[in-house]
Structures are given as C-alpha cells and as structure tokens.
Fold these 2 entries.
Entry 1:
Amino acid sequence: MRVPLSWLREYADLPDGVTGREVAEQLIRAGLEVETVEESDLTGPLVVGKVLTYENEPQKNGKTIRWCSLDIGKDEPQWVVCGAHNFEVGDLVVVVLPGAVLPGGFAISARKTYGHVSNGMICSSAELGLGDDGMHGIVVLEAGEATPGDDAIELLALRDDVLDIAVTPDRGYCLSIRGVAREAATAYGVELKDPADLALDGSGSGGYPVRVEDSEACSVFVTRTVTGIDAKALSPRWMQKRLLASGMRPISIGVDVTNYVMLELGQPIHGYDKGQLSGEIVVRRANAGEKLVTLDDQTRELDTEDLLITDDSGAIGVAGVMGGASTEISDATTDVVIEAAHFDPIVIARASRRHKLSSEASRRFEREVDPLLPRYAAQRVADLLAEYAGGTILPDETVVDTHPAPAPVNLRADHAARVAGAPITLEETVRHLESVGCTVEAAAADATAAPLAAGVHAPVLAAVGTTTVGTANVQADDLLTVTPPSWRPDLRDPNDFAEEAIRLFGFDNVPSILPAAPGGQGLTVSQKRRRRVATALVGAGLTEVVSYPFTGEADFDAMGLPADDNRRTTVKLVNPLSDEEPSMQTMLLATLLRTAERNVGRGATDLAIFQTGLVFLPKAETKPAPLPSVAHRPSDAEIQSLYDALPDQPLHIGVVLTGSLTPTGWWGKGRPAGWADAVQIGRVIASAVGAEPVVKNVELAPWHPGRCAEFSVDGKVVGHAGELHPKVCQAFGLPVRSSAVELDLDALIAAGPESIAAHPFSSYPVAKEDVALIVAADVAAADVQAALAEGAGELLESVRLFDVYTGEQIGEGKKSLAFALRFRAPDRTLKENEVADARQAAVQVAVDRFNAVQRVG
Amino acid sequence: MSGPNTDYDPVEVTPLHAEEVERTRDEALTAFTEAADLAALQEAKVTYLGDKSPIVLANREIGALPPQARKEAGQRIGAARKAINEGFTSRLAVLEAAHEEQLLATERVDVTLPWHTPQLGARHPLSLISEQVADVFTALGWDVAEGPEVEAEWLNFDALNFQPDHPARQMQDTFFVEPAGSGKVLRTHTSPVQARSMLTRKPPIYVICPGRVFRTDELDATHTPVFYQVEGLVVDEGITLAHLKGTLDHFVVSMFGEGLEARLRPNFFPFTEPSAEVDLLCFVCRGASVGNPDRPCRTCGSEGWIEWGGCGVVNPRVLQANGIDTDRYSGFAFGMGLERTLMFRNGVEDMRDMVEGDVRFSRQFGMEI
C-alpha cells in the first residue's frame, strides 16, 4: 500500500512539519511494516506562468519550437523555448526557472538553444513527476486556478513523501488511506477525520435490481446509479496525481473515481455501464462450463466454486476479483451503476488463486473489508462522479445486507497485562482498545471468558490497578466484553485484543526476564556423534560445504546409474525451481559432485570436501498426508499417519576427493588421493561414532567397478566408498581417479556403542610372529586376516597386514599377504611352543578356508 | 737402577724440585688452555698426564726419596697432578660443549618450510553458527529438537494456525510435493518441529530447533530458496512476552556481544499472538545510510535496520491444535535465518557465497566463526 503523505494528512491531523520518515517511524512502532519512504527531490523555483506571446519557429531538424514570453508575476516577462504546441496565449502553465531541480535530479539552468537563451522551461506532467497524463504536451492549468507567480509546488502538491507499507494479512484495513490514517492518528494522539463519515443521500431502496443467491459468500451488495456522466472527462489533476503516487495509472474519470475511493476507503468498487446491463443482477456460483471475458480480455473458464456477478446475458464479473469486458465503462458510457459489496475472504482467495489473478480488489477482499463500508463507498463514488463528470445521482439505492454484527468477546480485564508480563493498567487497556475502535463494556455478571489462558509475571498483577468502564468499577479479575470494530474481523480471541493493547502500550516498555528452564541433558547422543564426525574429518583435512538437495535425470545419467536403479525413484516437487531438477536427492553425491565440479572449475583441483544432509527415499506405497482438525490434538492414529505418509529421510554424509592428497614439494613427490583414502575416510567416520563396519568389494555406480567398497554394520549396508568411475569423473569435469564416499550417518550412529567397558591389558612380554600366505588374487585380505584372527585364539593380541606381493615368484593369479601377529597372555610369559602352536592354528584356518599356502623364506 | 739411594739429597733430584713441579704444572695447564680442539687437548693430555709425562715420572721418583722427604714430595706431586687433572677436565667440558654447539649449529633448518601432511580442514560456517546457537540454549537447559525436511502440510501450516485459504499460507512460497494434493511440502520454516515437539513432549517444553528450510525464491544477494533457520519454543506455566524479550536479549548478547542493537516491533504471524518482528541495526552502515543518498547501503537498502526474525506469544489456538492445556500453559516462540545472522555477524555480503559450496568460503572460517 503506497500512501502519499498529503493524502494521509487530509484525514489524520498530523503535526505541521512532520516528514514521511518520521511518520513511518511511528507507524513501524505501531506494527505497520513501512518498507520504504520515497522522498521527493524536487526543489524550486517552480511557478505558475501566463503565456503572453509566442512565435512558431520552424527548425532545420523539422521541428517547430515556440519562443514564448510568460508573465511569472514579475515586472519583466520570462522568455523560454518550448517544444510543445498544446497551449494558447493566455493559458496558465507551469514554469521551472534556472536553479531548480526537477524530479530525478534534473538541474535547470538558463541555456542557449535553437538560437535563443531559454530562461527555464514550461513543464509537462511527466517532467513534474506526475506521470504521463496523456496530454502529449505541457500542463495547462484551468483558467482561474492560479495567478502568475504562484508557487506551483504548493499548488500542485508536487513535493509529497510516499510511504510504501507491506500490509500483513491481519491488517486488511490498512490497505486504505482510512486505515493508515487511523493508525497515524492513534500514534500521534490526534483526531481522525474518518473519510467514510459521509452524508448518505440514498433512499435505501429502488435501485438497480439485485438478487443475492449466496448470502454467505456475498453478505452485502449495494448499488447506486449516476446518470449523464461525461465519460470522456479527465479526472481532476489532484486525483490523477494521487493515483499515480499510489501506483495506479489514471485512465478515465469513471475508472479513476472507483480506484480513488478504493484506495481512500479500502472498499473495492465496480462500475458498470448501465446501458450494457440487461436485467436483474444476480450474485451466484458459476455453472459448469460457464466462461467470462474479463477486463484484461482473457477468456476465463469458470469453476463452479467461483462466485459470479451475472445479468440476463450471463456472467459479467468474477465477484471481488475482476469485472467482465462486456459491461465495462467506456468513453461512450453515460449512466453508471456502482457496485459496492462485501465478499467472503475465502471465496475470493480461492478464486484469485484458481485464476492466478491477484487484483487490487481481490487483495483487499481476501483480507476482509469493513462490511459497513459499501453504502458509504458507493455514496463517495457517486459524489465524485457528480462533481467531476457532471453526473446526476439518483436517490434510488439497492441495499442487500445480511452481514452479522461483530461478535463481542469476553476477556479478563488484566488479560493484556498477563500476556505481556507487563504492568499495563486496566485504564490503559481499555483506552487502547477503544482507540483501535473497540467497544468496551463491563461483562454481564454471568459471563465467562474463552478458556485461553495467558501467562503472568507476578509483580504485574499488583500494578494493573482498577478502572471505570461505563458506570462499573473494574478489577483485574473482572471480565470485559469487547466488541471489535467492523473493520477488524481479525480480532476474535482474547490474545488478539491483548496484542492491540500491548502494541499501543509499546513493546519497548515490556520488561525483559529470562525464564528458567528445568535442567536439560544437553545434546543427544546422535547430535554429539555428528559433531565428532565433522571434527574428525576436519582434522583429516576435509572442508565442509553445502549444496541444494535438488536433482534430476542429468545428474543420475552423469553418475551412470542404470535405468532401473532405485536411486532414480525420487520424491518430486510439483513446482521445482528448475524443470531439469524436479527431484529431491536420493544420494548426497548427486549434488555434492556438482559442488566438486564447481570448485574444480574455479581452480581448486586438489579437493577434499564433505557434506551432511538428508536424502529422500520414497516409500513403496505413497499415501497422502491427512489434514486433521485443528480444534484439538489429533488422535495418536492420525499423528502416526502423518508421520507414515512422509518419505524416509535418513541423514547421509558424502565426501569427494580429487587431485593430490599430498602436494609435490621440497620433501619429494606428492601423493594423489585415491580409492584407499576414500575407504579410509569411511573408516574414520565409522570410528568417530564408535561403529565397526565390515568392508567388502562390490560393483556399484558411480564408483569404479573394481574399486568400490561396501560398508555394512550389523549385516546392514550403510554406504560405499572408493574411486569414481572414469566416466563419472569425466561427466562432472573432475580430475581422473577422483574418489568419493557416501554413508548413511544415521545408521552408523545407531550402530555405535551405548557405553564402552574397559578391558584389562597384560604387562607380560609380547611375542611377535610374521606369517606370509599365498592366496588367490581375488581373496579379500580382510577375510584372510579374519581367518588368522579366528584361528590364533585368545592369545592373539593383534594382527596387521604389512605387505602385499604379486609377481613371478608366486605365480599368476595369486598374491602373497604378509601379516604381523602379536601374541600375549594376561598372566604369564608365553613359552615358545605356545606361540608356535597358536601361529600354526591361525595359519591352518587360512589354509582350510582359502587354500592358502605358507610362503617360506 | 740400583737400590734405594740412601744418600739421597733432595736438592739433586730436579724433577722433585718444588719449582720444577710448579713449572711442569703451569706448562700443562697452559697447554690445556691453549688446546684449540678436542684432538689438541687429547695430545696435551698424553704429554702431561700420560705414562711418560714429567709428573708421572716424578711420581715414580718419590719412592727413591728418604722417608723424611717422601711425604713432602708426595704432597707436592699429588697437588700438582690434581691441578693438572682438573685443568684437563674443565677444558674438556668447555671443548665438548663447543663441539656440540657447533654440531647443532650445522643442523639448523628453516622452520618456515611447509610440510606435506594435511592442514586442518574447515567446517561450513552455517554449521558452526547452528552449533553455537544450540550451545547457547543447551547451556540454558533447553533441548535441541529436529525434524524432517519433507513435511506434512498439516504440521507445516494447519497445526500452526495457518488456515487453508489464509493469505499467510500463500505468502510462504511453498514447494509442494508430487502429486498435487499429497498433503506434503518442503518445510517452509522449522516451525513444524515445534508442532512435533508439542505433540511428543509434555510441558515444560524448552526447545531450540535449527534446520534447513525451503521457499521458492530465486537465488540472489539476499535470497536463497534453501536456507537455514533456528527457532525456539517455550511452553510452560506463566510464560509471557517479557520472558520472550528476556530470552532474545540473552540470545543477542550471546551471539553479538555489545554494540549491535535489536528492536521488537509489532507484526503478524499466524503462529503467535501477539507477534513481533525482531530487527537488528545494520552491521555495515549502522543506520548512517538512512536519508543519506550519498552513502547508500547495499546491505540494508539504506533502511538502517535488517529484519532478523519473527517472534511472539504462541497463539493459544496453536497450543490447542497440538494438545497443550491452555488453561494451564502459555508459551512463546521465535525464529530467525542463520544466513542473515551470519551476514550481519560476520560481514558476509553476498548470500550466494554461503550456498554455492565454494571451499574458500568455508576455509576462511576454519573451525571458528
């Protein structure tokens, strides 16, 4: 809502000299979101001039300029060059003189042009910041409107600050000068001159015939008729200026007046060309298949939920959203039927959304308009049409009004103080409620308050005092009966009224008290373990990044996922940011690889990054989530079905390594990051949360088929690590042999221990034995190691692989694995034969299981 | 040599002369002192303490002296030997120390050289600030609550008093999950975690909910469709707006220290009644750009204040929908954007830096913000 300060001043008696910025400050404190204040940069001298003489002077460039002398109230005439021709000798015009600055920062000086020295210029509407008035020339004032030499800035109210207010949904009444003026008047403690306080001259009956079929959707419908207007008349300049300042284009007197009244009062108005109406106006829901060509020349397919204004010809408007083209006011219109109605906010909101049509009218109806306004608004339109378009107002008036009176609400007299925890006295509470337009009475003896309790801060109770309402003395625990004003349908609950009293009391005046929570237990186990993983990875040199979770087919293709891969089955968005990325990620790498690509593209070729984030896994059966009642807590079954309807969303962790882990330097050659680093990072992540994963070779995209490790805990696969497939590196523009990890962090965390029991350790000497075993090349080292551990028995302290050898000496298709075994007993020094037996037992299991051959020498 | 010289005349045995002994001693001490290195010292040692050295030879002669003279000569020779030994030892210590010093000096390295083991990596500052907020509130005894990002529409809107056709629901620029009418959305705020907290916990409830949220904004310097919020919720007996202010004051001091200032101004949110906006003084211009066209501020649009978040007293309708006894309990809630917090707290000027995943952004923070 754009509010010119001059318009606001007309209805709120603001102190002289306050600026737009100061008013904005006050309105912000009162809870209006003033987004910007536009301050005019116009400075004079800018005066009214009377054309004394002019000469037409054709120029070489084909133009004809006028060399004019003007009476600007001085002894000597002012001589200027003018390119426009829409004026005659004797006309009053607006002259800007050297030294002035026009809107937009255009400084004016005397300058030589077309062979003359032009001492200023005659201004057009656009040059004055009034927008294009359609005159194709300079502004010509009405004869007698001013005298030469008058200050045109004041005359045309050219210097006007404009406040731009983002009106919150509960404050629909502030989508009007009337509403903002009310807030401004309250803020400054000055009188409000209500622009709706008009003399009604309608008869209350006999107007254009109207039948409302759906009185819930349309509770008020008022019409007035004005005949004999000159539709071609221009609306007065002040009205045009205000419309422009408010962001609306002046069009014609008929349209401008309805817009002007809507801005002023907040009541949307529709004007019909009476000559184009046929028969009774009926307000009803649309029939299936009905269509309407709206004012914007779009043909709209109507929905049976749409509320329509119709006549014998069919639909002539979507109620409260947009009128139809067939009955719109045109240059040929002479008689106008003015519609001012009250529509149900939800009906309008739905229609507006359905037709993707947000109009000035629908924005207001959606936020609910004062139901008492229609008669006054129609009167105001009729008055303005009579005054500026030469119309005649018929006393006949249609008034359909079934709107219920606002419901009174009972609340404790100290409710505002209890909600705020601030000593808002009862006297203040009543005064503030009255200033927003409420009627406040002492409640009847048997009244009860809505069971919506408020908090309280003990010292507050003593400070609220008592007050007198009507003839009753009211104490803190007495009830008040408060009736909201017609323009505040948002005031329904005790807390709504409390808010009004508190905001006028001032949020700044509410004390600051830190509440004492009961003792907590700090972070959960999962939260702590997540932090540990991040800290461990940072310790290993990795950098955390974030990525958007949106993905699509291009990413899946780039990762080489097979067509039937279940990771291509995604949760999709109805309205994604990009049609190419309609899906939520099913794996972090889908988006992390893009982040890696961006970094590599920016020159960071040696990359070690990680990210944690949810992945979104559709359930086998997708059910819609229910929408239970909000009147009470949903049943446990309803809550469960809310949860069940959602996809699984485990927390994953992803890692991408590219380029070198160790750079080449003065110490020697660098070391590229490879599959083993990725697997090791997987192990680091697992050990940071205390999980003990089992690792084995698998083939899975996007990894290299021979270099992918599957991690599992307790028999459940929790993720993968290894080198990326060469094609994947290529597709994402990553260096060759880049590697990646993706693990289900939730599952790993869940596999961590609840607590750890300490084991005693022996102080007897250790016995060391090395074993080299030749096995088939495809046997996993981890399995051989497990076999040794199993066979060695309880004397084994540790086993570690320290060498892998392949070569001619052991034959093709085989490899030699060398292990260091350490034996120790808890209670004695081991004898040689004990160690030898344990070693042999260990080897025997490997021999039995893998056909291993001990390598000697 | 024949037997003992019984006619011994001490004056005639020169090595045993007091002058001769002193001369030999002084000569030895001079030789040690003049030995420039350990090898020279070793040579001098052979000369003055070796088997053929004058002092050792003289010592042998003592036995040939008449008994009355032996004691005196023995003492003289003994004292001289001791002095020579000490002279050697102390010189040895000096030369060994010098030798070691010289050796270590040759092993000097340039400690400014880099090394190849990885440097510490870095956390993303959004994670760090999220954890810092969590720490501020866990220190107060609050719990950190979490929830899913694909959320039931009922929990994201209805349970929070966003009525189906209310304009507030349209303001939120929601991503809807297929198929249309699935009743599922990408959560537009972390508030559904508050609903979940009320549905699953019993008052008193003190929770802080950091998390990632989604709205259909285009990415630019101040907007991102995916961003992080943190919300707080308290439901307890006797909770008031004053408690909200006290909590926010504590929060501001914990996060920003002194200097920057917050203001509460009335606003509208369906979830709370009364509701207020929490604004912070612009960290770049500190308000200096307001009404000062020569010094426009890109960060706050020359408004002087930056919207930080929203807050209010929990609307009793929300408590009812989530099964809280409104006769007994009241509550407050607040929420703010973490990107925005980072922007004015750490001077991040462009939202895009925070969401593009460029490692340089994280690295400038390391593990601290």
Entry 2:
Amino acid sequence: MPEGRPSPLIRAPSQQLGPDYRPTEEKPTATVSTAPKINNLHILNQTPQLIALLTMIRDINTGRADFIFHSNRISRLLVEEALNHLPVLPHTVNTPVAGRTYAGVKFEGKICGVSIMRAGEAMEQALRECCRSVRIGKILIQRDEETSKPRLFYDKLPEDIKDRWVLLLDPMLATGGSALMAVDVLRSKGVPEDHILFLNLIASPEGVQNFADKFPKVRVVTAFVDEGLNDKNYIVPGLGDFGDRFFTL
Amino acid sequence: MNIPSLELPLSSFAALETPERSVTPKAHYSPPWANTSIIGIAGSSGSGKTSLSLAIIKELSLPWVVILSMDSFYKPLTSEQSAAAFRNEYDFDAPEAIDFDTLVERLRDIKTGKKAEIPIYSFEKHARLDKTNTIYSPHVVVLEGIFALHDERVLDMLDLKIFTEADGDLCLSRRLLRDVRERGRDIEGCIKQWFSFVKPNFHKYVEPQRNVADIIVPRGIENKVAISMVSDRIHKTLDHKSKMHQIELRRLGQVAEDAPLSDHVAVLQHTNQLRGINTILMDPTLPREDFIFYFDRLAVMLVEQAFSAGLCYKQHTVNTPVPGCTYDGLELDGEVSAVVVLRGGSCLETGLKRVIPDCRIGRLLIQTNFRTGEPELHYTKLAEDVSKHKRVLLMDPQMSSGGAALMAVRVLLDHGVEEHRIIFVTYLAGKQGLNRLMSVFPEIKVVVCRIVGDMESRWVEQRYLGC
C-alpha cells in the first residue's frame, strides 16, 4: 500500500470479559480483536489474561524488561496454538497406574522455525520453550530505500526444509510485504504452502487480507487483529516498533 | 470493509459439558485436628506439672502435640500492680491473676480447628509482649498451670483432667531453683512470695481442684504407670477420631458421586498438543529429563488457564507508541500469590514462575499416612498478608480422594483467605474427589488438565522428582 493514504479503520469491538460463572457486572469491558472472516486465520481466544498481556506490551510506558517478558508469554501461547495444527496419529499407551491405558496421540512430521530478522528472532525463545531442539532458519528482508519495496538480503535454512512443517515468526503483520516475500522464499525451497504457519502477535486487517489473497493455504495464527494502518504503515493502535522495543530501545 | 460480527470462542471453560449451574448441596468438612484433645494438668507450684507434661509427650511420641502453659495467660499488669510485682507483693498465685476469658477463647479456637494466637508473657517486664505464638492444627494440647482445672468453661473443654501431687518441701525447693535460675528473681523475694501468697493460695484454690480431677498423679515423672495410662488413653481417642474422619470422607464421597461437575471447574481443552503431551507423560519408559520438560510446559498451560478462569481484571486504557493511539485493555486487579501443597506442588512451580516470575509462594506439607490413609498436615508457612491477596492459587499436581485438597483449602480458610479467592490448580483429579471438594467448598475455582479414575497413586511427583 502506498504511503500517505491511510486505510479506513475498522472499529474494534468492545466486550465484557470473564468466566461464565461471574455475573456480567463483574466482567470488565475491553477492546477485543476484530474478526475478519478469513479461512485459515486463527485468532487466539480473547481471554482476559491475553488482553491484559497485550495491554502491557502496547503501553508506551512499559519498560524493556516487562516488554520482553510479556511478549514472550504471548509468543508461547501462539506457538502452543500453532502446534495444534500439526497432524497427529492415534497412539494408546500404558500409564504408570497399573492396568490403565491412555488413548493418546503421537506427533507426526518434523518441524522447524524460521524467523524474519530481526523482530522475528524475539519469538525464538518461546518456540524453544515448547520445542527444545527445534531447528531455526533465518531470513533477512529489508525495505529497499530506492523502490521502497521489500528485498531479500540473506537466508539460511535447514537443508531438508521441504520435508518440514515451518513456523514462520514475525511479531507484527502490517502490510505483510516481508512475510509474503518470506513465504515466496520458503516455497522456492519446496515447502508446500499448507505446511507453513505464520505466527504473529498483532496483525492488521490489510495484512491478513493480503495473505488470504496471495497464499490462502498458509495458516495465520495471531493474538489480535487491530483496527488498521496509519499513513506510515504502522499498525494502529499497535505497539510501535516491536524490534526496537525488544532489542534496543 | 464491513464491520465484522464477533464470533470468537470466548468461553474460558471450553471443555465443560454441562453449562447449567450445578446444585450440589453444600456439605460440611471438619479437619482431623478439629475437636482437638485437650488435657489439663493442675497442681501446686513446683509439683512437677511441666516435667509430667513433657514425660507424657515423650511417651505419646506423636507429632502435633503442643504444651500450652497458663503462664502465657497472666493478665497484663497496671503500673501500680507492676510496681508491686517488682517488690514481690503482687499475688501471681491467685486465680484473679489469670486472664481466663482469653484462655477460654483461645482454647475454643483450638477446639474448633482454627488458628489460635497465644500471648507471650514476660516475667522480666511483667507485661505481655507484642508478639504472639501461633498454634494451628495440633491433635493434642496439654494445658498446664496451677489453675488448669479451676474455670468451669475450661473444664468443659478438657478431655482428661490430671492433678499432680508432691511433698510441700519438694515444691518449695523446686520453685526456688526455677525462679532464681530461669526468671531472674532473688531468693529472699521468692521466699517472701511463697509464704505470703503461694502457700495460702494452695489450700484455698489449688487443692480443691483435686475433686474435679479424673486422676491424681503422685510422684510426678517417677510415676511411670500413670504416664503410660494417660498416653494409652490419648492414643485410643486419636485412633477413634481418625476412623471417624475416614468415615466422614467416605460419606462426603457418596454424597458427591453422581453430582454434575460444578461450573467452577475449568478443564483444559483437549487439543492435539495437550493429548500429545499427555501421551508422552504417561509413557513409563520416558527419560526423566523429558518428563520434566513436558510437564513444565503443561504446568504453564494450567497456570495460564487459571489466569483466564479465575483471576480478576480491571479496565485499563493505555497510550501506544503510535502517536495519538490508545487501547482500552485490562490489567490484573490485586496481587496473585500461590500456595504449593508439598511435596507434589513443587512440580508446578517452574511453570508458575514462567508466568509470574516474582510470585509469592506459601508452602504446606501434607502427607498421607500410609497406615491410616489419612492426610496429615506437617508444615505450614504462608505469606503474612495472604488473607489480603486478591487470588490465591493452590497447587497440587494430583488429587484422588480429595483428602489433601480439602485439608489444604481448610488451612487457607483458617488463615483468613476467603473461599471464593482460592483457585485450586491440578494436573489430574478424580471425579469423586473433585465433587467432594466442590460440595464442601462450592465457592472455590478449580483448574484441571484431566479428570481421571478415582484413587490413582501419586505417580506424577515420583516421576518428576525421581524418587
């Protein structure tokens, strides 16, 4: 989207949040995610604690330590949700309780993480907390100053990536320019489109729409779809520059 | 673009099958330490009450026996009384010197299983100190003091009344030694006190207590027969109480067997990941390193679920770094702390700290007695202000009969935590045990990963801790 023309904002809905047993007057009201009707867009349950975590990292007054800790908690919820989309096989095991079995499942297929540098690297810790020895590839995409289009500078990915499910990591999905290019890179290495899961904390309605138009089979897992983009292509209300707040600010 | 309608799954209780509010009738549970056995030991000053109490405790060889000295209940003195006391002219050996009202109140607390704050009396200052000693959950209390059998209200609460007897000369010499050595008095003052107060009071107030005593023990600790008789009798009473407690637990279980699950119970949604992790954890051949890794991961899910199912939030609007933008969000309302039920609860601590790194954590050690199958409270250490915390997560990875959970909740209530503030977090729970817990404490919230068959052994902590 060219700069200078902000898209019309979608007003995010407000909702009273809390468990069912609690009377309505005891449930505080908060703004929850907009819910574009898009297949393969998966928005985390808007629980009060998720909203509280997002409130923390959106707050301009939150320092770096708290920003890192709380964004990591959200990333972990995203990873747990994304892993649920991987295929499993039925698998019944004996339990430590004599004579009892558990009808469980076994994970099938190998995975790897790919982070879009540098902000995507901020989500690697959460991925490692759920999958200890996971391989993590990197892709560096920067905006070209002259054309103002994203350009691939560097990639280093596992050799056998085409046989793996890929968790693509980038915390903010604004226009989606870099992420779309990253998916192109993965596809050029032979990764099937439907084996890619794109994880982000906050997305814009334009971003998720662009993804649905270009790669309808890529699953987008996000914590929140915001109201839109401003004239500088920042997500609003957003949280500012994720990479800066996590690494250097 | 149209304004979309909101169709997100917002329920925190996704796996709950019965949405209607359950109607389990509230049941009553009293912990095994309620109706505490109290033994009163009276007798003349220096007749060997303290030694006898110690001898009985030694013979009992039980945990949870407490000696309560009536010296703790001396009335605080006015300045004139205090001056008289320092001149050895205040009568400490008359019933008027004892604050029987406070004593009766504290004994009632102990008898009903509540926490009792016992005053500390300083003989050097003749005043109560600001500190108190806390007595909680004893099974036997030995109340010793010259007037232990004096007050009617106290007598009503005693299960066994003992009067010790000793020769008068022996009493005087023992008292002299003790007061000079331990209470910083001089010999002349002590003798003055003996003849002006102690001796006349003995005949007037102390000796008549013989008439209400169940047994009179001459020769103090040398009297081995009397000591073993007393100890046998206490053992019998405790065995009976333990049996009654077991019967009570079973009865609660029967009441609760077929009740629908309360809507205060949140079961984790069984996603593929969760089932996969469970499958891994169940495998008895899994290396312990992997067990710990996957269990910690699961513990985080449990704690996160407790955060959405049980905690309180308030509205909080923030400015974002994007100019002119605000966000109407939420923030936690009040402090959240945790109490782990040892030793199993410590397996959930790593997960807890990944969510609240600086969480304050109280500890309870509850062990099931392998002989009687009864849970026993060995140790309690809670934050001073736990009663003021907005929510308290009570953590134990497994519950089967619910005996330990009932006891743990009871302990929190006795320390002033309101029932609706307690969130019990567990990995595996038996349906019957869960219903039993909810029928006794319907206001608490429970977060559980899986509901399993009743009476599973506590294998989770064994696997996690490796022994």
